[in-house]
Design goal:
The chain is mostly helical. Helix content is 48%, strand content 0%. The longest helix is centred in the C-terminal third of the chain and has 18 residues.
Length: 389
Amino acid sequence: MISAITIILTLQLLPITTAEQSVAQTTAQAPQQAQAAEPPKKVDSPVEPITPPPPVDTVTAKPKPIVVGAENKPAKNEITPEMTRSVERGLAYLASLQNDDGSFGRGRYGRNVGIASLAALAFMADGNLPGRGRYGEQVTRALEFVLANKSESGLLAAESTTGPMYGHGFATLFLGEIYGMNPNDSRVRDALVRAIDLILNSQNDEGGWRYNPVPYDADVSVTICQVMAMRSARNAGIKIPKDTIDRAVRYVRDCQNADGGFRYMRQPGSSAWPRAAAGVASLFYAGVYEDDSIERGLEYLSSNSMIANTGGPQMQAHYFYGQYYATQAMYLAGGDRWEQWWSRVRDELIAMQSDDGSWIDHQAGESYATAMALIVLQMPNRYLPIFQR
């Protein structure tokens, strides 16, 4: 799995709203014909007196609380001065990594639409948009790079990319966020619609997606990329078939193990916290907010990936991938889960930052790692539409 993950991101539906149900009306009909008068029958008194039910204890019998995500209920001290300084240094360093064609990074992971899109999303999480903001120019150039690498089929990928559906998912998410904030760019809409059509046509019989845009196979990590892309597009007004989402939800649930974690594919396999994070996030972005699968997944994350035990990218495979999705899952869960998770991941990421402002991932590169860390750290800004229910 995850050798391919690192290519693009080593990461969410479309809440398809349900129709409101009406309350059934009961009717009573009067007798049609009068009956002959009969003397009333004698009814024996019950042996035991009928006692009314005990009154409800309004103090202890409380209604089930409504789950509210962190988008409308911030945790205490979410944004600290240390975090602000860390983000400022990180954004400045990320901007220095942009190439002349708008892409980010060099070498094996240079000219990748997925990494360029993640970098652009990191700038957008700071409030920058094409033509607006301190890093608006960087977003504009990244957008031009993505649009320059769209094909007639709708695929968003550079020519040299292998396993392109990871990058396609992130690039489609980026276009959805751009279009949702500026629906007047016809180029973005055309590329977004074509990209979504390719996703819809690539879903396999199980309900998921895999590395290539063909409906033959599926895994959880690629599936979440497409689910988030479709969620963003739907938020921006692009129609997504309900059946596509329902099938994706069934696939993700089929990949959950008894311990609450998620395996790579439907076939038997072990759980891992990065996959568990992706699985829970995909259910949230599919519009499932209260479900046993989510509760078990969140419990697994809390028990198996305590921030202090992850060890960072040097000790934990797919560290930034896992934190990207796990933090989103806890953010959408809200409440105590978010408050406890956030302070730890925030402080850990700040401590891991290099002196030059970057974050390092020796497999996927500093552009990828820095973009991922910045997206996570700026979640409390609440600028990106994708982080709203």
